[in-house]
UniProtKB/TrEMBL annotation:
Superkingdom to which the source organism belongs: Bacteria
Source organism phylogeny: Bacteria, Pseudomonadati, Pseudomonadota, Gammaproteobacteria, Pseudomonadales
Sorted UniProt keywords: DNA-binding
InterPro entries in the cross-refs: Homeodomain-like_sf (IPR009057), HTH-type_TetR-like_transc_reg (IPR050109), HTH_TetR (IPR001647), TetR (IPR025722)
PROSITE patterns: HTH_TETR_2
Segments of the chain annotated as binding DNA: 28-47
PANTHER family: HTH-TYPE TRANSCRIPTIONAL REGULATOR RUTR, HTH-TYPE TRANSCRIPTIONAL REGULATOR UIDR
Ranges where the HTH tetR-type domain occurs: 5-65
Protein name as it appears in the record: TetR/AcrR family transcriptional regulator
Length: 219
């Protein structure tokens, strides 16, 4: 890796860590440069401003979600896939938690990022609907098309608002923890309760127990 490439990657990773720990609004480019022990000019050589760093991180998050939020090729979905999807969502939420916590501010601050996010949201809703349809075809869920559409939308709303809920209701802001996010994943799974096909119920309930975090640990 070339020195300039290495510095750029260090800036991205340090920014992610600082944004996650302190909130994006509380971190300046000077903070990032000081954290890395480089000059502000060196940082600006790679990124013209903080918005450019946020855009880079969103691109990584976007690519990561796009990579796993899709149907497997050449086979039907299984209960194990449900676990993989939910655990992947948890990992993505945790790694890029500042995006969820500061989303409205970030989109209000950058029209280009807001446009990218709208396209990303549409892709996620389409992919989520296709995955739910896949679980129906695999005999794991029983739903009609209108129910699939509503469930995909409800899951998206829950996932994208869960961190805000933690901040406003549970008082968690910069001190988010993985258990709190895991409860959010559990809530997504709970949305499906009325649609589980009986042959799959035992396996899905085992997944419920695996992901459950007592509410008193969250509120």
């Amino acid at each position: 890796m070339a020195p300039s490439t290495k510095t750029r990657e260090r800036i991205v990773q340090a920014s992610l860590a600082l944004f996650n720990a302190q909130g994006e609004r509380n971190v300046t480019t000077n903070h990032i440069a000081a954290h890395l022990g480089i000059s502000p000019g060196n940082l600006y050589y790679h990124f013209r401003n903080k918005q450019a760093i946020v855009a880079e991180l969103f691109g990584q998050y976007e690519a990561h979600v796009d990579a796993f939020l899709r149907l497997p090729e050449g086979r039907a979905l299984t209960i194990a896939d449900k676990t993989l999807y939910l655990e992947a969502l948890l990992a993505a939420m945790w790694r890029f938690r500042f995006l969820h916590r500061d989303l409205e501010h970030l989109l209000d601050s950058d029209a280009e990022l807001a446009a990218r996010y709208r396209l990303f949201a549409r892709r996620c809703l389409q992919a989520g609907g296709a995955i739910y349809q896949g679980f129906v075809e695999a005999g794991i869920l029983r739903m009609q098309p209108a129910q699939i559409e509503a469930l995909a939308l409800n899951a998206w709303i829950l996932m994208t608002s869960w961190v805000r809920f933690l901040g406003t209701t549970a008082g968690q802001t910069a001190d988010l923890n993985e258990d709190s996010l895991r409860r959010g994943i559990y809530q997504v799974l709970a949305l499906e309760d009325g649609y589980i096909a009986e042959p799959a119920r035992e396996a899905v309930e085992a997944l419920h127990r695996r992901l459950h975090v007592p509410l008193e640990q969250v509120l």
